[in-house]
Amino acid sequence: MNWLDICALEEINALGSRVIRGPKGDIAIFRTSDDEVFALDDRCPHKGGPLSQGLIYGKRVACPLHNWQIDLESGEAQAPDIGCAHHHQARVENGRVMLALRDAV
């Protein structure tokens, strides 16, 4: 597994996100209010809405198109909705946001 150094944690606003290009499309990296980071494909499982533009609260993001609630840890849509956005491993190491991409070259 390849860990990529994305940016300093403070470069992503609390309750904000950053989008990067991944090997299979855009990936949204989210920062919670308590400085945890999570990464999901930047496509809602419902209609493909840009999750990076949604509101973050707790460990969820609300899709900006139809308000689907997506769990940041798993990518799973919350009931009654069904679906999943692909989840990527992310962590903060020495103040840097790191992203694991299994498909990275």
Automatic annotation (TrEMBL):
The UniProt entry's GO biological process terms, in alphabetical order, are: nitrate assimilation
Cite a single GO MF annotation: metal ion binding
Short name of one Pfam family? Rieske
Keyword Nuclease appears in the UniProt entry: no
Rieske domain residues are 4-99
Q: Which domain of life is it from?
A: Bacteria
Q: Keyword set for this entry?
A: 2Fe-2S, Aromatic hydrocarbons catabolism, Electron transport, Iron, Iron-sulfur, Metal-binding, Nitrate assimilation, Oxidoreductase, Transport
Cross-referenced InterPro entries, in alphabetical order? Rieske-like_NirD, Rieske_2Fe-2S, Rieske_2Fe-2S_sf
Give the Enzyme Commission number: 1.7.1.4
The record's listing under PANTHER family reads: 3-PHENYLPROPIONATE_CINNAMIC ACID DIOXYGENASE FERREDOXIN SUBUNIT, FERREDOXIN-RELATED
The UniProt entry's sequence similarity note says: Belongs to the bacterial ring-hydroxylating dioxygenase ferredoxin component family.
Q: Report the NCBIfam families cross-referenced here.
A: nirD_assim_sml (TIGR02378)
Q: What is this protein called?
A: Assimilatory nitrite reductase [NAD(P)H] small subunit
Q: What is the lineage of its organism?
A: Bacteria, Pseudomonadati, Pseudomonadota, Gammaproteobacteria, Pseudomonadales
Q: What is the gene called?
A: nasE
